[in-house]
Specification:
Radius of gyration: 18 Å
Number of domains: 2
Order of helices and strands: HEHEEEEEEEHHEEEEEEH
Helix content: 10-25%
CATH architecture of the largest domain: Beta Barrel
Strand content: 25-35%
Distance between the termini: 24 Å
Shape: globular
Structural class: alpha+beta
Number of helices: 5
CATH superfamily of the largest domain: Nucleic acid-binding proteins
CATH topology of the largest domain: OB fold (Dihydrolipoamide Acetyltransferase, E2P)
Largest sheet: 7 strands, mixed
Length: about 350
């Protein structure tokens, strides 16, 4: 597995090579320009960032903002089933945070930093189709530290990041949210893998309000059936991705497909013989020495995972799963885990 220094260097190369797989928020006039499909390879640098938060309006730098922070009441399922289509501003009341907050993407051309949290419909004991959505908000722009040459986004947990989603958001937080429905990318612009993905991901972007109102029990992840597991990596099944996108689910009995003899490939990705791919997008932070933010540690290519829990997510051009906690969401857990879960104070 790559160390943090080599990963950071490789990130720059991958970002350039995958530029066609996502649009730049500043270059588009449509709501779909705010994308949730960024890769962990392009989101975080390792250098210091002296910029502080405190952004104003929607998303710190004002780009992607909406006039007035109110909208008709909607359920998560209203978004995923098309009752409110792209461009619709809606209010989701009482949704439950399912993930920690994470850096979704950093624009290379504009230095926009986009932050996100996966949320679930309220009142569930187990996740289900049409119950999840990714909420997104722009924060303070990336800045070049004194003496540096590369711009970095603020360090979550160390610097205020300046968007509208509370920095300390954790699974179980209950939120009232207002944002705009979008699909990203729309249309997909991916040239790889072959066949290329043809389905963008539904999301709630341009979030102007995300207020914590309490806490609630986190629903257990739905265990995917054999047919559902096949749909996870489909490049064409729009109906499946719309209803299961952003939902935390569980895949069981997974046999590793080694990459150059290794379990963990570049950018923390693990591939399985059934075509499923998982990543470390949510919890990985290149600047952190906290083991909870390091890439996963698995060394035996014969490893069979009893289960992996993760959010169904479009990582650039590939649909797969993204775990939130490399200790709690893997069985077996990552080899460097010091407990069965990463405590909330370590996730921040």
């Amino acid at each position: 597995m790559l160390n943090r220094a080599s990963l950071s260097a490789a990130s720059v190369l991958l970002l350039a090579s995958l530029a066609a797989c996502r649009s730049d928020p500043a270059s588009s006039t449509t709501s779909s320009s705010e994308g949730g499909g960024g890769s962990s390879s392009s989101t975080e640098g390792t250098g210091a960032n002296t910029s502080q938060g405190g952004g104003s309006g929607t998303g710190g730098n004002g780009e992607g903002g909406i006039a007035g922070c109110e909208g008709p009441e909607a359920q998560v399922s209203d978004v995923t089933t098309g009752n409110f289509g792209p461009g619709s501003k809606v209010a989701l009341t009482g949704v439950v945070a399912m993930s920690q907050k994470f850096l979704v993407s950093k624009s290379k051309s504009t230095n926009n930093c986009l932050w996100g949290v996966f949320v679930s419909a309220p009142g569930l004991t187990e996740t289900q189709e049409n119950s999840g959505i990714l909420i997104l908000s722009y924060g303070t722009k990336a800045a070049i530290p004194e003496g540096g040459t590369t711009a970095y986004c603020p360090k979550l947990g160390q610097d205020p990041v300046g968007d509208q989603i509370p920095d300390a958001t954790m699974p179980g937080d209950v939120l009232d949210v207002v944002g705009v429905v979008s699909r990203f990318p729309d249309p997909p612009e991916c040239m790889a893998p072959n066949p290329a993905n043809q389905v963008g991901m539904l999301q709630l972007g341009q979030v102007c309000k995300a207020v914590k109102t309490g806490t609630a029990a986190v629903p257990a992840p739905h265990v995917l059936t054999a047919d559902e597991l096949t749909g996870i990596s489909s490049t064409t099944d729009k109906a499946f991705h719309d209803k299961w996108g952003a939902v935390k689910v569980r895949a069981e009995n997974l046999t590793v497909a080694p990459q150059d003899g290794k379990v963990v490939g570049d950018f923390g990705k693990i591939k399985f013989t059934n075509g499923l791919e998982i990543g470390n997008k949510i919890y990985y932070r290149a600047y952190s020495n906290n083991f909870c933010h390091e890439g996963p540690v698995f060394t035996d290519p014969n490893t069979v995972f009893t289960r992996v829990d993760g959010f169904h997510y479009l990582d650039y051009c590939t649909w797969g799963l993204q775990p939130n906690d490399k200790c709690a969401d893997y069985d077996p857990k990552s080899g460097d885990c010091q407990a069965d879960t990463c405590p909330p104070d370590l996730l921040q």
